[in-house]
């Protein structure tokens, strides 16, 4: 998992509320267990018409936001089913941070496990960030995980809270496997002791 330290990039405004995981990645794309390749189908039903043509009004189809790395979203982002494909699709598209007033719990947890930072801020802060995001590609937003701040292109800064353990994992690029591998010396020592104490096992 890639480390998340400081991200400065284009933020796409998506003020819709209750964006669920089926909207993020529709059910027909859940057959794969590969984490790559899902970005093209991110927000599929909002991005394309029935013939597969891009809908020009959708924010991520607009030239200013095709390389967005941050989403500023409406309330209750990631609600619905618990599919982990949702953060996979966001990450494969290039989204590393989603900012909202609230997230569904399972989606929120899955983001951390996949290297995406979900930032919870009060409505007035999200409104200010949404307005900054509407400036387009020339306005770069900065998310600083170490200092726990989001800063607009004009220098307006908002502090956010994050669980210290989750912060540690993101800063060091540790998913569940990475966390286990941190304990590799202790695991090896235990297995050696058990092999000596119980050679028949």
UniProtKB/TrEMBL annotation:
Family from the record = Belongs to the LeuD family. LeuD type 1 subfamily.
Specify the pathway.
Answer: Amino-acid biosynthesis; L-leucine biosynthesis; L-leucine from 3-methyl-2-oxobutanoate: step 2/4
InterPro entries under this entry? 3-IsopropMal_deHydase_ssu, Aconitase/3IPM_dehydase_swvl, AconitaseA/IPMdHydase_ssu_swvl, IPMI_Swivel, LeuD
Q: Which residues does the UniProt record annotate as the domain Aconitase A/isopropylmalate dehydratase small subunit swivel?
A: 1-123
Q: What is its EC number?
A: 4.2.1.33
Reaction catalysis annotation: (2R,3S)-3-isopropylmalate = (2S)-2-isopropylmalate
Q: Which enzyme class?
A: lyase
Which organism encodes this protein?
Paracoccus acridae
Please describe what this protein does: Catalyzes the isomerization between 2-isopropylmalate and 3-isopropylmalate, via the formation of 2-isopropylmaleate.
UniProt subunit comment:
Heterodimer of LeuC and LeuD.
List, alphabetically, the SUPFAM superfamilies matched. LeuD/IlvD-like
Which UniProt key words apply to this protein? Amino-acid biosynthesis, Branched-chain amino acid biosynthesis, Leucine biosynthesis, Lyase
Pfam assignment, any one: Aconitase_C
Q: What is this protein called?
A: 3-isopropylmalate dehydratase small subunit
């Amino acid at each position: 998992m890639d480390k998340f330290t400081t991200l400065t990039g284009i933020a796409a405004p998506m003020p819709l509320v209750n964006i669920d995981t089926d909207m993020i990645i529709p059910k027909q794309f859940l057959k794969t267990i590969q984490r790559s390749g899902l970005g093209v189908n991110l927000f599929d039903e909002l991005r394309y018409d029935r013939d597969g043509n891009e809908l020009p009004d959708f924010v991520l189809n607009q030239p200013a936001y095709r390389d967005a790395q941050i989403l500023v979203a409406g309330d209750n982002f990631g609600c619905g089913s618990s599919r982990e494909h949702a953060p996979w699709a966001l990450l494969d598209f290039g989204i590393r941070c989603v900012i909202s007033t609230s997230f569904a719990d399972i989606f929120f947890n899955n983001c951390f496990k996949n290297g995406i930072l979900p930032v919870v801020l009060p409505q007035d802060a999200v409104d200010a960030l949404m307005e900054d995001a509407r400036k387009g590609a020339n306005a770069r937003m900065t998310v600083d995980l170490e200092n726990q701040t989001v800063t607009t292109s004009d220098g307006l800064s908002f502090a956010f809270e994050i669980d210290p353990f989750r912060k540690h994992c993101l800063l060091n690029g540790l998913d569940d496997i990475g966390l286990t591998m941190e304990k590799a010396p202790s695991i090896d020592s235990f297995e050696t002791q058990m092999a000596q104490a119980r050679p028949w096992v």
